[in-house]
Design goal:
The complex is a heterotrimer of chains A (621), B (189) and C (238). With 621 residues, chain A is an alpha/beta fold. Chain A has four domains: 95 residues, Glutaredoxin, CATH 3.40.30.10; 202 residues, 3-Layer(aba) Sandwich (Rossmann fold); 81 residues, Ubiquitin-like (UB roll) (Roll), CATH 3.10.20.600; 125 residues, NADH-ubiquinone oxidoreductase 51kDa subunit, iron-sulphur binding domain (de novo design (two linked rop proteins), Up-down Bundle), CATH 1.20.1440.230. In chain A, the strands form four sheets. A six-stranded mixed β-sheet of chain A has the order 6-14-13-17-15-16. In chain A, helix 3 packs across helix 4 and helix 10 packs parallel to helix 14. The longest helix of chain A is centred in the last third of the chain and has 18 residues. Chain A is globular and about 100 Å long. The N terminus of chain A is likely disordered. In chain B, the strands form two sheets. In chain B, strands 2-1-3-5-7 form a five-stranded parallel β-sheet, sandwiched between helices. The mean pLDDT of chain B is 94. Chain C has 238 residues and is of the alpha+beta class. Chain C contains five helices and ten strands. Chain C has two domains: 73 residues, Ubiquitin-like (UB roll) (Roll), CATH 3.10.20; 139 residues, Alpha-Beta Plaits. A five-stranded mixed β-sheet of chain C has the order 2-1-5-3-4, with helices on both faces. Classes of the chains: A alpha/beta (621), B alpha/beta (189), C alpha+beta (238). The interface between A and C is large, with 39 and 40 residues.
C-alpha cells in the first residue's frame, strides 16, 4: 500500500481539530483503556489517525505518542494516512477468490479509477483487500464503510461503484429508507442468514429468558455445576470445558469479575456467530447474564469484530431493550444485588484478537497481543480482574442448558462432544450456509446435506484446522477426531491445493501479532517456501524442511496462532503429498536446479544491452 | 603411521575480498604440513585456471554477485566431492549482499549501478556511464549465498576465518573426523 | 518465603515462591539461553530462546513460574536445535553483518549463535529488509537493521529511566521498535540513560557514538568465554 503522493492529495480530510479530539477523549473519560474507542471515533471523524491526533490523544490520556501509535499501527482498519470518504474493503479470502473476486476487484478498480491499496486523488474512495469478513457463504463480498455487499459480480461491482460515485451513500445501496429500517431488517437486507438446517438447541424455537429465570432460582455454584454437567465445551475452536473456566473465575478472590463474549469470529470460513448475532442476540446476552450470575461478574463486554460493524446497531438495540426490561443493569429481574451490564467493544481488523489474551489486551486499549500465561484470564484477566471469555455460540448454549437441563444437552452428540454445533459450510457446494447438527456426524454426511459431494478436499476448522482428502471423508466432526470452531470449506478437484495453502500462509503472516520470534519470522519462511513449491523451484529436501520448520514454530510459539499456523502445510503434506513431490526439482550433480540463472541475469541483460557469454547461446557459432 | 594418499584441494574466490585466501596463507608454517597431505589443484594460489582432475575438497570464498561467480561455483560443485563455504560472504552473501537490502525499488539493479557510478555523492565519473565492457560478466539481480546456487557441505564461518580454524577443519575433514567446531573458536567476524 | 526443589536436566535445584524457572536456574548457576530477558527488566517472553520443556510441554523459562517437583529439560539436543532455529530466524529477519558491526564480539545474538553451534549451511531465506539508520542524535545512533525486537530498550527506558523513548509499532513481520518522536534527536534520550547503556541492547542497534572500537575485536565480552559462562561460573565459585 502506498500513501498518496503530495500532488494528488486533493481535498484534504478535515483538519485535525483539537476541540473534536478533546470531546472524543472526554466521552471516554480520557481513559487510556478505552484507546480503541478513542481511535475509532477519531478515525471516523478525520478519516485517518494523524501524527498530530496521536500526539493530542497521548497528552489527554496520559500516554506517550509512541504508545498511541503502537495501538493505531497494530490494527489494519486504522489508517495512518488519509482514507477516502468511502472505504471499500474487498474480501480476499480464498473462497471469495475462487468465487470471482479478482474480476470484481478489477471492475471496482476500473470504475473508481484507483488501484487496490490506493486512495483516490479526489479523496473520495479507498480500495483495499481485507481477509475473511465472515461472508464466505455469499462470496464474493465486501465492506463499504460499515455496510456489506454480497454475491458480487463485475456487473454489480460496476453498478455499486457508479452509484457511490454519483453521490449515493453506502447505506443507500441497501435501502433508500435505510435509517427508517429496524436494525434487524437492515442486517438481513444486506446479508442472508442461509440457515440450511436448524437444530434443536440454537436455531429452532427458543423461549425468551427461560434460561435466565431458571438461573435465578439456583445458587451460582449450582449454575456452574449444571454447565459442567452438560459437557458444553468452548465453541470457538479450542474446546475448553466452559463450566471449568467459570469455576476457576468464581473461585478467585476479587472485587470485580468480568464476562466477555468473544464475537471476533475471524477464522477464515467461519460465519456462524454472524447468524447468531443476527437472529439470537437476546439469547447471547441472556447467556452472558447467566455467566455473570454464576461467576459473580458485574461487567460484561461483547467484543465484536470490526467486520461485523453492520451488526452493532442490532446488538445495541438488544442491549437497550434489555436494560429497559430490567434484564440488564441493577437488580436484574428484581434480584437484589444482581447487577450486570454490558458494553460493546468493536474490533478493528485483527484475527489475533480472537485469542483470549489478545482480545483482553484489545479491550484494555492495547495492541492485540496475547498475554503471558500464567496467570490465566480466569484468575487475572481484563484490567487484572478474573475474566471469563466465551464464544458467542457457547454463551447461547448456556442459556439453553439452563432452560432445558444439563442432561438434555449432554445426551446430544457423542461422548466428549455434547450438544449441537453450528457448521459454517462454504466453498464448492450447492448449499453454502449454516447447519446446526449434533456433534458426531461425518464429513461425508455434511457434504451430502450441503451438496458438496464432488469435493476433493475439505478444510475442517479453517486454516488452523485440518485439510482432508476424499479418503478421510468418513471422519467425524467431534473434538476428538476433527475439531472445528465451525468452518467447513469445500474445495473441488479444480482447485490448486498449493494456491490454497499459500493463501492461508499469507493470511497467518498478515495476522501474526509479531510478539514472538517463531510466529513472526517462521511463518514468513513457510510462506516463502510454499511460494517456491508453487513456482516449481523447491528442492527435494524442502519437504523435510517444511515439516521441520513447522515443528519449531509449533513448539516455540507463544500462543495458539503460531501453534496452529503451520497446519495448512502439515495437513496437506500428509493428505496431499503428491502436490508437493510433483513440484520439486532435484539437483543435478549437486548443482541446484532451483537456482534460476536466467531470471537472475535478466535485469542486467536489459541494462547492459547484451547477452550472457556464459549462459546464453552464442549465435555466432 | 600409514601414509595416506594425498588429497586434492581446489579453491576459488567469488564475490569476496581475497581475505579468506589470505587466511589460508595465515596457517604459516603449517602450510608445509598441509602440503604434505594435499595437492592444490585449481586455485588462485597455484594459478591453475581449470580443474586438472576431480578434487576431494573445494574451498569457496565469496558469494555470487555475477554470472561468472555462478559459473565457477557450479564448476566447483561438479568437480569436488566436498564443497566448503569459507567465510561470511560465501555463507550468507556478506558485505556484497548489502546491496540486496538497499535495492527495494522497481529497477533495483539500475538504481544500484547509478548510485555506484553516476549519482553517488562522491562520484567523479567523466564517462557518465556505468562500466559495460563486453568482458564484464553480467550482474545478478541480487547477491546469493553459495548454498542457494549449489549444495554446500560445510561452512567455515568468519570474516575471515582464522588460519587455525581453516587448518584444523581441513585436517579433521581429511582424517574423516570432523564433528563440528569447538564452540570457543566459532567467530562470525 | 519457603524454598522447594525441582530439577533442570536432572540437577536438583532450589526454587522459591514467585521465582520463574530462569530466575531459579540463574541462582543455581545453571544457564538458560535468553535474548529478550535481562536482569532487572520486566519479563517479556518474546524471543522464545529460553524455551524449555516441562512435562513435554514447551514453556518460556523467563515467564514460567518455578514449581515444586518440576522436571525441566534445558540443554537437550532437541531444545538446542529449536533455539538454534530461533536465533537463525533472528539473523535472517534483519541485516546482521557481523564483519562490519561494531557490536561484534559483544553481541548476544552472535554469542548465542556460537553457543548453539549455528554453523551448518542455512535453509532459511534472508529477508533483507530495507530499514532505517537514525543518526540524528549527537551521542546516539540507531541502526535498526540489527534490531531483533527484544524490547529491552523499551522496558529499560520506560521502567528504569522513566522516559518511554521507545515503543513497538506495527504488527507481525512489520512490528518494530520505534522512537517517541520524529527521530532520536527529537526525543529526550541521553547517552547516560540506562536504555542506551551497553548492557541493554543485546545487538548493535543502539550505538553510543565515538566509542565503537575502544575495545579491539578479540578482546571483547564473548572473546573471553561463551555467553552464559558468568552464570555458569557462579556454580563453580560456590
Amino acid at each position: 500500500m502506498q500513501p498518496p503522493s503530495e500532488e494528488d492529495s486533493a481535498p484534504p480530510p478535515p483538519p485535525i481539530d483539537g476541540v473534536v479530539i478533546q470531546s472524543i477523549c472526554a466521552a471516554y473519560d480520557n481513559d487510556p483503556h478505552r484507546m480503541m474507542d478513542i481511535l475509532i471515533d477519531t478515525q471516523a471523524h478525520f478519516r485517518w489517525i494523524s501524527p498530530d491526533a496521536m500526539h493530542q490523544i497521548a497528552d489527554l490520556t496520559g500516554l506517550s505518542r509512541i504508545e498511541v501509535e503502537g495501538v493505531a499501527s497494530f490494527y489494519t482498519f486504522f489508517s495512518l494516512t488519509p482514507n477516502g470518504r468511502v472505504t471499500i474493503r474487498l474480501c480476499d479470502d480464498i473462497v471469495d477468490r475462487f468465487a470471482g473476486m479478482p474480476e470484481v476487484a478489477k471492475a471496482f478498480e476500473a470504475e473508481l479509477g484507483i488501484a487496490l491499496g490506493e486512495t483516490g486523488a479526489d479523496g473520495a474512495f479507498s480500495l483495499e483487500y481485507t481477509p475473511c469478513i465472515g461472508l464466505c457463504d455469499q462470496a464474493p463480498a465486501a465492506m463499504i464503510n460499515d455496510i456489506v455487499v454480497t454475491n458480487l459480480t463485475p456487473e454489480t461491482a460496476r453498478e455499486i461503484a457508479a452509484r457511490l460515485k454519483a453521490g449515493d451513500t453506502p447505506e443507500a445501496l441497501v435501502s433508500d429508507r435505510f435509517e427508517a429500517l429496524a436494525p434487524h431488517a437492515r442486517a438481513t437486507r444486506m446479508v442472508d442468514n442461509n440457515i440450511r438446517h436448524a437444530g434443536g438447541v440454537l436455531l429452532g424455537p427458543v423461549p425468551r429468558e427461560a434460561g435466565l429465570k431458571a438461573a435465578l432460582d439456583l445458587r451460582p455454584s449450582q449454575i456452574i455445576d449444571m454447565v459442567e454437567a452438560s459437557g458444553v465445551r468452548g465453541c470457538g475452536g479450542a474446546g475448553f470445558p466452559s463450566g471449568r473456566k467459570w469455576r476457576f473465575a468464581a473461585e478467585t478472590e476479587a472485587e470485580r469479575r468480568v464476562v466477555i463474549c468473544n464475537a471476533d469470529e475471524g477464522e477464515p470460513g467461519t460465519f456462524k456467530d454472524r447468524v447468531l448475532l443476527t437472529e439470537r442476540p437476546h439469547l447471547l446476552i441472556e447467556g452472558m447474564t447467566i455467566a455473570a450470575r454464576a461467576v459473580g461478574a458485574t461487567e460484561g463486554i461483547i467484543y465484536l469484530r470490526g467486520e461485523y460493524a453492520y451488526l452493532k446497531p442490532l446488538v445495541e438495540e438488544a442491549l437497550a431493550e434489555r436494560r429497559d426490561a430490567g434484564l440488564l443493569g441493577q437488580a436484574i429481574m428484581g434480584a437484589k444485588g444482581f447487577d450486570f451490564d454490558i458494553r460493546i467493544q468493536m474490533g478493528v481488523g485483527a484475527y489475533i484478537c480472537g485469542e483470549e489474551g489478545a482480545l483482553i489486551s484489545s479491550c484494555e486499549g492495547l495492541p492485540g497481543e496475547p498475554k503471558t500465561r500464567p496467570p490465566f484470564p480466569v484468575t487475572r484477566g481484563y484490567l487484572g480482574f478474573p475474566t471469563v471469555v466465551n464464544n458467542v455460540e457457547t454463551l447461547c448454549h448456556v442459556a439453553r442448558i439452563l432452560d432445558r437441563g444439563a442432561k438434555w444437552f449432554f445426551d446430544m452428540g457423542t461422548d466428549g462432544s455434547h450438544g449441537t454445533k453450528l457448521f459454517s459450510v462454504s466453498g464448492d457446494c450447492l448449499n453454502p450456509g449454516i447447519y446446526e447438527l449434533p456433534y458426531g456426524l461425518s464429513v461425508h454426511e455434511l457434504l451430502e446435506m450441503a451438496g458438496g459431494e464432488d469435493a476433493a478436499a475439505v478444510l475442517v476448522g479453517g486454516p488452523s484446522g485440518t485439510m482432508i482428502a476424499r479418503d478421510q471423508f468418513d471422519r467425524r466432526l467431534t473434538f476428538d477426531d476433527l475439531a472445528t470452531g465451525g468452518a467447513i470449506v469445500v474445495f473441488n478437484g479444480e482447485r490448486n491445493i498449493l494456491e490454497i495453502v499459500e493463501y492461508y500462509m499469507g493470511f497467518f503472516v498478515h495476522e501474526s501479532c509479531g510478539y514472538c520470534t517463531p510466529c513472526r519470522v517462521g511463518n514468513v519462511f513457510l510462506q516463502k517456501a510454499i511460494g517456491k513449491f508453487r513456482n516449481g523451484l523447491a528442492n527435494p529436501e524442502d519437504i523435510d524442511y517444511l515439516r521441520d520448520l513447522s515443528a519449531t514454530i509449533i513448539e516455540t510459539s507463544r500462543c495458539g496462532l503460531g501453534m496452529t499456523s503451520p497446519n495448512p502445510i502439515l495437513s496437506t503434506l500428509d493428505n496431499f503429498p503428491l502436490v508437493y513431490s510433483a513440484m520439486v526439482k532435484p539437483s543435478k550433480d549437486r548443482v541446484r536446479a532451483t537456482f534460476d540463472i536466467q531470471s537472475a541475469i535478466d535485469g542486467a541483460r536489459k541494462i547492459a544491452k547484451r547477452r550472457s557469454q556464459i549462459f546464453d547461446r552464442d549465435f555466432t557459432k | 603411521m600409514t601414509e595416506l594418499p594425498k588429497a586434492r584441494v581446489a579453491t576459488a574466490s567469488l564475490a569476496g575480498c581475497f581475505g579468506c585466501h589470505m587466511a589460508i596463507l595465515d596457517m604459516d608454517e603449517r602450510l608445509i604440513d598441509l602440503m604434505a597431505r594435499v595437492d592444490v589443484d585449481r586455485s588462485p594460489l597455484t594459478d591453475i585456471k581449470r580443474f586438472t582432475r576431480r578434487c576431494d575438497i573445494g574451498l569457496i570464498e565469496g558469494g555470487c554477485c555475477n554470472e561468472e561467480n555462478v559459473h565457477v561455483l557450479q564448476d566447483f560443485r561438479r568437480n569436488c566431492d566436498v564443497l566448503i563455504a569459507v567465510g561470511q560472504c560465501a555463507i550468507m552473501g556478506g558485505l556484497p549482499a548489502m546491496r540486496n537490502a538497499i535495492m527495494h525499488s522497481d529497477d533495483p539493479l539500475r538504481e544500484c549501478l547509478d548510485e555506484a557510478f553516476l549519482t553517488g555523492r562522491y562520484i567523479r565519473n567523466t564517462t557518465h556511464n556505468a562500466p559495460n565492457d563486453p568482458a564484464l560478466p553480467l550482474l545478478l539481480d541480487e547477491v546469493y549465498p553459495c548454498s542457494e546456487v549449489v549444495e554446500i557441505d560445510y561452512n567455515i564461518p568468519g570474516c575471515a576465518p582464522t588460519g587455525d580454524v581453516i587448518y584444523e577443519t581441513l585436517i579433521s575433514l581429511l582424517a574423516g573426523k570432523f564433528r563440528g567446531f569447538e564452540r570457543e573458536k566459532i567467530r562470525f567476524d | 518465603m519457603s524454598g522447594f526443589s525441582f530439577t533442570i536436566d536432572g540437577v536438583e535445584i532450589t526454587g522459591a515462591e514467585g521465582q520463574t524457572i530462569m530466575e531459579a536456574a540463574d541462582a543455581a548457576g545453571i544457564y538458560i539461553p535468553r535474548l529478550c530477558d535481562h536482569e532487572g527488566l520486566r519479563h517479556q517472553g518474546g524471543c522464545r530462546v529460553c524455551t524449555v520443556k516441562v512435562g513435554g510441554r514447551s514453556v518460556a523459562a523467563c515467564t514460567q513460574p518455578a514449581e515444586p517437583g518440576l522436571n525441566v529439560e534445558n540443554e537437550t539436543p532437541h531444545i538446542t536445535k529449536l533455539r538454534r532455529d530461533l536465533v537463525e530466524m533472528l539473523f535472517h529477519e534483519g541485516n546482521h553483518l557481523c564483519p562490519i558491526c561494531e557490536a561484534s564480539g559483544n553481541c548476544e545474538l552472535q554469542a548465542m549463535a556460537y553457543r548453539l553451534d549455528m554453523t551448518d549451511p542455512t535453509r532459511f531465506p534472508y529477508l533483507e529488509p530495507s530499514r532505517a539508520v537514525d543518526a540524528s542524535h549527537p551521542d546516539i545512533a540507531l541502526d535498526t537493521n540489527r534490531c531483533i525486537s527484544c524490547g529491552r530498550c523499551i522496558r529499560a527506558s520506560q521502567d528504569v529511566d522513566g522516559k518511554g523513548i521507545f515503543g513497538y509499532v506495527g504488527r507481525g513481520i512489520h512490528r518494530q521498535v520505534a522512537v517517541n518522536g520524529e527521530n532520536m534527536a527529537a526525543t529526550d534520550a541521553e547517552v547516560t540513560d540506562f536504555a542506551m547503556s551497553a548492557e541493554v541492547c543485546p545487538v548493535g542497534c543502539i550505538i553510543r557514538k565515538r566509542e565503537g572500537f575502544a575495545t579491539p575485536i578479540g578482546e571483547r565480552d564473548f572473546d573471553k568465554g561463551l555467553i552464559g559462562h558468568e552464570i555458569e561460573g557462579k556454580k563453580a565459585d560456590d
